[in-house]
Amino acid sequence: MQAILAVTLPFFALVLCGYLAASRGVLAESAIPGLNGFVLFFALPCLLFRFGMNTPVLELLNPAMLGLYVGVALLLVVLTIRLTRSSRVDLKNAAFGALVAAFPNTGFMGVPLLVALLGPSAAGPVICTVLADLFVTSSLCVAIASSQDAGPGRGGAALAQALRGALSNPLPWSIALGILASATGLHPLGPLATVIRMLADAASPVALFTIGAVLWRSGQHAQQRTPLALYLPVALIKLILHPALALGLGLLGRRLGLPLSEFQLLVLGLAAALPSASNVSLLAERYGADNGRVARIIMASTVLAFVSFSTLAWLLIRPAAAQ
Fold first, then answer.
1. Domain containing 183 — which CATH number?
2. Which one in 48, 91, 186, 230 has a CA-CA gap of 20 to 30 Å to 97?
3. Which pTM value belongs to this model?
4. What are phi and psi of 26, to 5 degrees?
5. DSSP bridge partners of 104
6. Predicted pLDDT of residue 20
7. pLDDT value, residue 183
């Protein structure tokens, strides 16, 4: 366990540093969007490009991993909406609750954390989950949420708009460029390679710091107080049910002949155990959902994940290392 905590503790400590810096005024609130923009448009794309460039194409676009992960995400979205929709939670807010339950923070936290825990070979499976969440999970949940305002028969238009939003995100394009570089063997050289390396090296610490700052900002802009019963169950769905479904269905799939290695299943299970993606609160705010509830789900999942993720990593990695 000590070896696991030696990796996970610094990651969560940087998130706490970002939260404290924003809450104490060391980091001005007006600077948080700029910090988020640096990570999203510069540092993280370079990190994903570098991993993509150095990973075989079939590991980045593995059909078995993509199929399993998307299937788990869709099942989780349906279950979360059915379990949480009520007179106090309409369809739009149930859909955004489902999104934070099914969309782990693989971009800002998962890629560097899982590579630190498991080595560079974990990059391929994690990038698979990033692509699945950006194009399938987020687009579906945003389309469901938008359909409430769009009216009957407008679900297709809402889905098309959500997909256009996913395509405007720089992360899939950086992954695509990495896949192209991996397939062709054409890698950046000279000063360009140095710039990419420097930005990629900055991605992990700045992204983690930004998560904390964004969490504080989201709480400050919450529209109303959210009862514990409306957000804690969704955080537990994210941290417990999501990895349980990924590991359980993955084991079942392997028994039925799904070409999925133990290592790939390990990575997918740990990716599913990550806390909710912090940028979902910004989406909720943009689409007029209860961003206070979403922010509290993300905050609860991030705080609790230090224990739940570290424990699951210890339980899964210890037997794997012994083999």
1. 1.20.1530.20
2. 48
3. 0.89
4. -65, -40
5. 276
6. 96
7. 85
Integer CA distances (angstroms), 249 to 49, 60, 70, 259, in order: 30, 21, 12, 13
Q: 104 near 242, Cβ under 8 Å?
A: yes
Domain that holds residue 188: 2-322
Q: 3-state class of 104 per DSSP?
A: strand
Single-letter residue type at 162: A
| Total domains in the fold of the chain | 1
Least confident of 110-124, 165-179, 219-233: 219-233
User: Could you tell me if 301 and 140 are in contact, meaning their C-beta atoms sit under 8 angstroms apart?
Assistant: no
Supply 194's token pair.
Answer: 């140095």
| Ramachandran angles phi, psi of 276, nearest 5° | -65, 150
pLDDT at 311 over 80: yes
Tell me the longest C-alpha to C-alpha distance in the chain.
Answer: 60
Yes or no: say if 203 and 46 are a contact pair by the CB < 8 Å rule.
Answer: yes
Which residue, 310, 157, 155, is CA-closest to 243?
310
Written as one string, the DSSP assignment of 257-315 is T----HHHHHHHHHHHTSPBPTTHHHHHHHTTS-HHHHHHHHHHHHHHHHHHHHHHHHH
